[in-house]
Amino acid sequence: MNKGKISASMMCASLDKIFYYLAEFKKSNLEFLHLDIMDGEFVPNLALGTDYVTSLRRITEIPFDFHFLVNEPLKKLSWFDIRKGDQVTFHYENNSEIDACIDYVKEKGASVLIALNPETDYHVLKPYLNKIDGILVMMVSPGFAGQKMLPFTINKVEQIRDYLEQKNNSNLIIEVDGNITIEKAQLLYQKGANVFVAGSSSLFHNSEVPVSDMIDKMRDVIK
Question: What amino acid positions are annotated as catalytic residues?
Fold first, then answer.
């Protein structure tokens, strides 16, 4: 199995420490910055708008891992500077323009993933498996950081990996998002996940431990 990758949840990164975090991420060769884009409609929260993302681009070269938790994602994708090397995820739920979203992201040269809420059956993605680069599995109900992982989602990851193998789509990424502790990352890696959104349960959990040390600890269990 290929080494896992880490995507730092910027929703959990305190603004007063942003330059410290980015320096630690650079030192650790972090793969992605995870950006939750929330419109207050698809989920009951607002997060990481256009100005924040534009400003972040100016101070880091780490690729972005966009996660659009929004209604009308096709319209809102164009509000952001999506670049080659980024990952872009939009949800299956409440989205009648999935093919158009896929085409838009691919035109930008970014990888495209489709996200599934915990209760959504992964079989709905069958028509898109040959068009996308991966699947993001929500391990909590989306909207707020700090929730506990829903236990059934762990088996769901394993089921999705088995399903992708059966469909000759074993190359697809499985990204996991929600309460990804070091211990859960190890388990989910064994189940077939290979990109891990790290937030308040891991990278930003203990202010006394350097973030680079937390990244090293997570890397040790996903290699």
Answer: 36, 177
31 close to 222: Cβ distance less than 8 angstroms: no
Inter-residue contact 114 to 132 (CB < 8 Å): yes
Q: Profile the chain (223 residues) by mean pLDDT over runs of 10 residues.
A: 92 94 96 97 94 97 98 96 98 97 98 98 98 98 84 97 97 96 97 96 83 95 96
99: which strand partners?
A: none
Tokens of 129: 């498996």
Cβ of 155: how many Cβ atoms within 10 Å?
10
In the chain, domain spans: 5-221
CATH superfamily label, 5-221: Aldolase class I (3.20.20.70)
